[in-house]
Amino acid sequence: MSRPPSNYPSRSGTPRLRDVVHEVMKNFRHEKESEAHQIFRQTAGHQPKGILPQTINPDEETVPGIEHPGSTGVIYCSDRAMANGFSYAKSHEWANLGQGAPEVGPIPGAPERPSSIEMPLESLEYAPTTGVKELRDAVANLYNHTYRQGKDSQYTYENVCIVPGGRAGLSRVAAVIGDVYTSYQIPDYTAYDQVLSAFKRLVPVPTALDPKAKYKLDIEQTKRDIHTQGLAVILASNPRNPTGQVIKGKDLKDLVALSRESTTVILDEFYSWYIYPENEQDFGQSVSSAEYVDDVNADSVVIIDGLTKNWRLPGWRICWVIGPKNLITALSQSGSFLDGGANHPMQLAAIPMLHPDHVAKEKLALQKHFKAKRDHVLKRLHDLHLDVDVPPDSTFYIWLNLEKLPPPLNNGLTFFEELLKEQTIVIPGIFFDINPSHRRNLFSSPCHHFVRLSFGPPLEDLDKGLDAMANVLAKAKSGTKKMGHSYRKSLEIHPHDHI
Q1: Any idea what the CATH number is for the domain that residue 253 is in?
Q2: Does the predicted TM-score (pTM) go above 0.85?
Q3: Fewest C-beta atoms under 10 Å: which of 324, 325, 385, 456?
Q4: Looking at the structure, do residues 222 and 339 belong to the same domain, yes or no?
Q5: pLDDT digits (tens, 9 = 90+) for 449-462
Q6: DSSP 459-476
Q7: 8 Å CB contact between 77 and 416
Q8: How many CB atoms lie within 10 A of CB 156?
C-alpha cells in the first residue's frame, strides 16, 4: 500500500483521517485496502481457501466439523441491506434490483394471476419424489408440442422429475454424478459456486468467457477440452445469468451434440421465455436444448426449468428436471434423502398452467412487457453515461461494467455499498466469478468491475433504483472523499462514525 500523502492538513497541521483514507482508496490495488472487500471477506464462508484453516471466530465455533459454504450473492446482499435498515416489511421503501425474481403481479395481455388453489384430500399426502404423474405428463407434452413436433423420439412422464425449486434440481443432479471433471463458465449463476463446492466429487474446470466475443461459449475449444482434459460434465445457464446472452440455433445444436461424445450437458433453462426479438412477428418464441436432442433416452442432455421465472411464480417452488429415463430413476433416489419432493397441492395446481394455449398467452405477454422494461432501463443508463458493453438479448439482467467510473466506485462491491446508502440493492459481479473468488485477490477477478442489475421488478421500482444510481453519480462529481468507507456492519454498530 502506498504511503498516505501529506498535502491534506487539518487546522492543527496534521492530515485529516478522512482525507488520508480517501487518498489511499484512489489507489486501491488489493482487497485488503478496501473496506467493502474486507466486510465481504469477514462474512462466514468468504475467506480465501487453501491459505488458512476455515475458522471464522474460534470463540464462537461450537459445532465441530462445520464448514461455512459461503452465501449466494442475493443472500449476502440482502444481509448487507438489512444491516443498512432494509426489512421485508418495509421493502416498498427500497429498490431491490438484486433479487433474481420477476414481478409476480398482473401484466398487460397475460392470463389472470392465480389467487387460490384446491386441496383435495389426497393432496395432503406426500407426493412421489419424482412428482405427480399428471404434472410430469403435462411437462413432457409441453416440451414435445413446443420443441419436438415431427420427431420420432418424444418425451414421456418417465423423462421428467418434479423438484422443489431449481437449486433442488441442481443438487439432485449433482448428488448422482460420480468423480468427474465438470466444465463451467465465468461469469455464470452464483449458486453453481455452492454446488461445485458442496458436491466435492465434481472437480470444477473453469472457462473464462470473453466479453469481446459477447460471452460466447467456444464450442470447438470445448470439444478439444473434452478430449484433452477429460471433461465429463458441462454445466451452464442458457439463456445466461448474468450476461443476458443466449445460445441458440446452430450454436445450441452443436452444444447438444457434445452429449454424444461421452459428455453430459446440464443446461439451466429458467429464462427460456425471456427472449427479446427485434421483429414483431418473432414474439412468442422460446429456446430450449430439447429442440436438438435426437433420442431423449440416449442423448445425455439434462434440462432444468420450472414455474419460477417463465410463469413468474417463484413462491410456488415447482420446477422440473428433464433427461433420459435412467437419470430420472437416479433423481428419485437422491430426492428421497435430499429434499423429499415438491409440494403436492401446488403440483396439482400447476397442471393446467402447462397447457400450450395458456403458455402461449403467458409467453407473448411476458416478452413484450419485459422487453419494454429492458429498453427503458438501457435508455436511462445511457442518459447516466453508463452504456452497457453487451446489452442483454434475453433474461432480465444487465451486466454493467463500472470501470469508467471514478475510484472507488469503479468496482462492484464498493458501488453496491454506496447504493445501500440510497436504499437500493444490486449484486456485485464477484458473486458470478464461480469458485475462484474464494482463492485470489478479488481485484484480479474478471467480474470485479461489474454489477448485475435486475429489471425483473415493476417499473416504478426500477426507476427508484436508477434514481439512486443517479444520486451516487451526482455526489461523485463533487468529490468521492465520503465514498468507499464508513459502512455499517450492523444496525447497532457503525464503527466509523468518527472518521
Answers
A1: 3.40.640.10
A2: yes
A3: 385
A4: yes
A5: 999 999 999 999 99
A6: HHHHHHHHHHHHHHHHHH
A7: yes
A8: 14
